[in-house]
Inverse folding.
């Protein structure tokens, strides 16, 4: 056995956390399903009791969670790094906004359309990305994220994008039949159903043969190729699917906010999604929702502590969280569960 | 299971709706939400963090201003509870924070949220909820729309009018020149360009270079060098202080001496011209509606003295060269004026009525002679500017007050 | 022709800025195997410290030296206090720690020194050179960047400490076996990167003006320059930095219709295209992987 430094065989991005999850899932499927069912029930009931503002915030949490799941499919499960997901989110949002604003189409059509457009663009972007690894891929995706606001402002596209002034999006109204549901609640349920379906699809994808191929590429691309996996095809397809997820989140985001502008989709959104991914747990599907909670609520907490130093406090909270849960919330929970069950095999660091 | 849940929702929805209807007090005739005998709650958002954090002086000055008002006994005996949140200049966060202010904190009105995209994002919401979006801190043209958006009112002279004023000046003083415009690639930059071109009318072809920059650019040297090379002899510089100063310095470095028109965004002596080198800024033309706190010409002015003591007492760490503190305190002073006019009838309707009935209102840091005027069909309080020329030490105002043409 | 020369000169001057930052980025990459997203903010903070010392009446060179030394110490401390505890955490978690550091430095600088632009003195002056194509400060900046590069080259190639640092980053396990104190090597790398950053900041500030957000754009281009040149090569970083500066100026000036508006995107697209043909950058060594 030769000693090869880890980073030479595996991609720089470590995302091995998914493996113990599955092992745990196989050991105690009942408990896991019970928890998920509980979360779903709570998610359906909450808006009945919450104010419309909280309902709106939870809608945003779901949307960010979905966008983070998109990033997770690519980074966490396939080992491809991306700082460019703000661009896919933006494309999704603008697709929805243009369909509603310029063509007066129903908002329901915008969700699959945004996903489809992003799938194609993501797939195409995945082709050159095949040749780039780690930090070089980071730069390429970073370029995509920085280019996006410029393109949205570009004068030749103004007829569609509204240029620097952005577009106002008519928000969905609760259908007449359900007149007792407020618009905020309606949007929440639409979002919740989309998110549930997409999370379920992601979970079954990951546990399928395809999913194992995707993860094999992350863990060891050369061995995967040796086993007959078409690395290029799977990697570009994963890029497309990842963009699809984030694009759908973008469309839902445009509906929830009712306005799109180039300033909403800067590199800082990509960084927020990345933070959400890491805090939630790289390679964990449920962790994405925790990431969504973090992305939405932690800046507000920082803001409440000191408005002037909001940025600094946000940074301190982030550092503390990383110190306590280096492998994100999912890793932390796994560690706690393992501890409780008397396991010693899973370390808090993830591996 | 899903059906069951759906049914539960349907059953529970009326109860939720009943809860969400705001509690209407017995005094509803006189008080809107967020107002009591002792307190008025005001909301605000601004970029305290993120890439636009350099504008944070504006909300900081407003916060300080209300503290001063409270120390002086409040407005008509009511203390002002001013709640200001960080939106990091991202429209989705502005929507969230403003909804929190309106629905959760229950503010009476939202005063001077900052930024064109941020205000655009809440424009529809505020008008649907019928909550005043008072004196927005942005110079886009669209805020003067009393018919379509009766709950939103602008404040400063808009960028397009300023652009037209520069065009008029150029047509009068150098009608055969070649114009180069330096602008930021966003809403305000493009508004300036549009204003200049509209103002030139059929002579718009005088503009031979339109050079944009991004805030991420380290310098605008390339743009300035390019203009000189193309023979531009009228330089319309609409950049923010950092880039305006770079452009002034670079022009001097390469011995380029065009007719230099500087926009009001970047014309502070202390914030821009000192950094560029005062000798390099000689003979620049600009326009003003607020007093430049760093211009020695206002040293003995009462308004400036008031502002200076306000800064010393309430923002002692604040950098007095930051023009944001002047704008912020002026915005808050204007809001205070509206609240005073409302008397004890503190309803949202009355706020908009009073905001649309400003008659020759002035606040300490407005340029002498400039007054805020509004009417039910005119939601643009400040429309006048005055032009000035820099003599190497201070600005010298010249000509009459000019009223903007757009709005 | 004259226009081309002028844009080239202006591009080289900008390129010197990017090269400085790229050098600091490569420095930390070589010694810790990470790309420091907070590098720009650290440089900005160091520059503010230098500015504050000058404002308190210190002579330029004393303040300069003090800022470099303080930055070195701060860099070592940041490694020992903030990054040591997460050393074993996954790389993405460490990346988030960089983002946290970025946020903390940016926000506190704004709170302490406010957001107005500040002038920063230069020892080289601003006199025109070469028929006002560049000024003396820009020439000085290019000179200092090249000097730093030469020093680093000598340090990494010619001294035992430099060799030990490279070993510690490239292969910590083996380095430990041959007696290299890996932890301290990493800390030293942080210190040196912070010190180089402070020099870069103090060279850049006279050109772009000092303010808390001054490095955000510069870091972006510096990052592009470092990656273009190849992250493992200091010389590559410098070449990459200059190339990015020239490239974006030429794209902005000579591509009609959309050149100026989209110049950043164009520059980045060109870099991505270069990377597709040279996936480890122009001067980087590609890693051969074995199974």
């Amino acid at each position: 056995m030769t000693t090869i430094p880890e980073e030479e065989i595996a991609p720089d991005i470590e995302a091995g956390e998914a493996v113990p999850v599955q092992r745990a899932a196989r050991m105690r499927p009942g408990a896991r399903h019970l928890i998920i069912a509980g979360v779903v029930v709570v998610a359906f009931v909450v808006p009945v009791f919450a104010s419309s503002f909280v309902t709106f915030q939870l809608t945003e949490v779901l949307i960010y969670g979905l966008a983070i799941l998109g990033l997770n499919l690519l980074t966490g499960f396939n080992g491809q790094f991306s700082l460019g997901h703000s661009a896919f989110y933006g494309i999704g949002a603008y697709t929805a906004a243009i369909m509603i604003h310029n063509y007066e189409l129903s908002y329901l059509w915008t969700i699959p359309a945004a996903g489809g457009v992003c799938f194609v663009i993501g797939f195409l972007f995945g082709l050159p990305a095949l040749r780039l690894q780690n930090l070089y891929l980071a730069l390429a995706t970073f370029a995509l994220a920085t280019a996006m606001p410029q393109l949205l402002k570009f004068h030749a596209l103004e007829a569609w994008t509204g240029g620097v002034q952005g577009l106002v999006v008519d928000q969905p109204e609760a259908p007449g039949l359900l007149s007792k549901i407020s618009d905020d609640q309606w949007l929440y349920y639409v979002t919740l159903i989309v998110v549930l379906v997409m999370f379920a699809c992601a979970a079954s994808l990951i546990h399928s043969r395809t999913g194992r191929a995707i993860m094999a590429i992350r863990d060891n691309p050369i061995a995967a190729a040796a086993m007959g996996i078409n690395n290029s095809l799977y990697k570009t397809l994963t890029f497309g699917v990842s963009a699809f997820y984030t694009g759908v989140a973008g469309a839902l985001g445009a509906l929830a906010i009712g306005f799109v502008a180039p300033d909403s989709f800067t590199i800082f959104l990509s960084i927020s999604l990345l933070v959400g991914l890491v805090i939630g747990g790289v390679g964990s599907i449920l962790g994405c929702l925790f990431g969504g909670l973090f992305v939405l609520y932690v800046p507000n907490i920082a803001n409440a502590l000191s408005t002037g130093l909001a940025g600094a406090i946000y940074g301190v909270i982030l550092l503390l969280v990383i110190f306590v849960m280096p492998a994100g919330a999912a890793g932390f929970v796994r560690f706690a569960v393992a501890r409780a069950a008397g396991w010693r095999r899973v370390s808090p660091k993830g591996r | 299971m899903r059906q069951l849940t759906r049914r539960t929702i349907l059953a529970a929805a009326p109860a939720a709706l009943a809860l969400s209807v705001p509690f209407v007090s017995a005094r509803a005739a006189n008080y809107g939400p967020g107002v009591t005998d002792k307190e008025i709650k005001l909301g605000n958002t601004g970029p305290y963090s993120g890439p636009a954090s350099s504008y944070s002086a504006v909300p900081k000055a407003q916060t300080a201003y209300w503290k001063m008002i409270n120390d002086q006994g409040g407005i008509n005996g009511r203390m002002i509870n001013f709640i200001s949140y960080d939106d990091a200049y991202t429209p989705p966060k502005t929507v969230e924070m403003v909804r929190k202010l309106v629905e959760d904190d229950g503010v009476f009105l939202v005063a001077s949220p900052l930024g064109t995209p941020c205000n655009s994002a809440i424009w529809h919401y505020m008008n649907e909820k019928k909550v005043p979006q008072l004196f927005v801190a942005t110079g886009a043209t669209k805020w003067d729309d009393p018919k379509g958006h009766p709950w939103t009112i602008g404040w400063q002279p808009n960028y397009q009018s300023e652009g037209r004023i520069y065009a008029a000046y150029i047509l009068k003083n150098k009608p055969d020149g070649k114009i180069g415009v330096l602008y930021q690639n966003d809403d305000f930059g493009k508004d300036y360009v549009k204003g200049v071109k509209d103002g030139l009318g059929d002579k718009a072809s005088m503009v031979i270079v339109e050079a944009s920059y991004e805030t991420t650019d380290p310098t605008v040297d390339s743009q300035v060098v390019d203009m000189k090379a193309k023979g531009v002899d009228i330089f319309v510089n609409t950049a923010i202080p950092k880039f305006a100063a770079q452009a002034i310095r670079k022009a001097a470095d390469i011995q380029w001496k065009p007719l230099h028109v500087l926009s009001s965004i970047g014309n502070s002596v202390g914030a821009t011209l000192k950094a560029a080198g005062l000798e390099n800024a000689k003979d620049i033309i600009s326009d003003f509606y607020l007093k430049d706190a760093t211009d020695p010409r206002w040293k003995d002015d009462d308004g400036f003295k008031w502002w200076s003591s306000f800064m010393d007492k309430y923002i002692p760490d604040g950098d007095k060269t930051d023009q944001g503190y002047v704008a912020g305190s002026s915005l808050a002073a204007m809001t205070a004026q509206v609240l005073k006019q409302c008397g004890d009838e503190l309803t949202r309707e009355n706020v908009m009525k009073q905001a649309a009935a400003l008659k020759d209102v002035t606040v300490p840091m407005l340029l002498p002679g400039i007054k805020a005027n509004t009417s039910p069909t005119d939601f643009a309080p400040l429309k006048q500017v005055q032009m000035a020329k820099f003599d190497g030490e201070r600005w010298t105002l010249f000509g009459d007050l000019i009223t903007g043409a757009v709005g | 022709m004259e226009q081309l020369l002028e844009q080239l000169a202006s591009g080289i001057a900008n390129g010197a800025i990017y090269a400085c930052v790229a050098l600091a980025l490569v420095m930390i990459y070589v010694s810790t195997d990470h790309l420091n997203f907070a590098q720009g903010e650290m440089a900005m903070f160091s520059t503010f410290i230098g500015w504050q010392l000058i404002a308190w009446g210190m002579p330029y060179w004393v303040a300069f030296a003090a800022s470099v030394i303080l930055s070195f110490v701060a860099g070592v401390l940041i490694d020992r206090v903030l990054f040591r505890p997460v050393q074993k955490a996954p790389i993405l978690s460490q990346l988030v720690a960089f983002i946290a550091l970025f946020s903390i430095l940016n926000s506190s600088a704004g709170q302490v020194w406010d957001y107005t632009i500040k002038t920063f003195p230069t020892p080289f002056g601003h006199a025109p050179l070469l028929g006002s194509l560049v000024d003396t400060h820009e020439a000085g900046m290019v000179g200092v960047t090249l000097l730093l590069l030469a020093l680093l080259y000598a340090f990494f190639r010619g001294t035992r400490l430099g060799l030990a640092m490279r070993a510690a980053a490239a292969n910590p396990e083996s380095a430990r076996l041959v007696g290299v104190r890996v932890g301290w090597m990493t800390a030293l790398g942080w210190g040196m990167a912070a010190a180089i950053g402070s020099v870069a900041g103090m060279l850049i500030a006279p050109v772009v003006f000092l303010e808390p957000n001054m490095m955000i754009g510069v870091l972006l281009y510096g990052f592009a320059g470092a990656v273009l040149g190849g992250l493992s090569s200091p010389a590559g970083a410098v070449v990459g930095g200059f190339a990015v500066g020239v490239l974006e100026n030429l794209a902005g000036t000579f591509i009609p219709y959309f050149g100026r508006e989209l110049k950043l995107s164009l520059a980045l697209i060109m870099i991505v295209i270069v990377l597709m043909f040279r996936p480890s950058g122009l001067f980087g060594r590609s890693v051969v992987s074995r199974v």
